[in-house]
# Entry
Amino acid sequence: MNKRRALIIITAVVAIVAAIVYFYFDPSSSRLFPRCLFLETTGVKCPGCGSQRAVHALLHGQVGAAWHYNAMLVVGIPLIVFYLLVSVMQERWQRLYRVLFSRVVLLSLVGLILLWWVLRNVIDM
# Structure
């Protein structure tokens, strides 16, 4: 088995185990999940704040609640899945891979995350 295939299998197993944990345990009420150190220290939400609760809500079909916890995650999950698919199919979709992983596109994504960070703290999101 090549390294790439092994990495894909390991990633899938970890994702499935994480999904099971997040399905059965609510991060809002369980001590199993860590609190955001950035929020605890500064009182300001980081771009990832609410992600654990959003994942739990999504696994229970509560899209509205997930959106309330972290809208960027709800929008970002399909994008992350798409990026993973393009990465796996890199040899077949070389041109798309080059575009998606270009400096301009990646810096634009970082810019969107930073904009989300600012907006969610300014407009109590």
The chain has a mean pLDDT of 91.
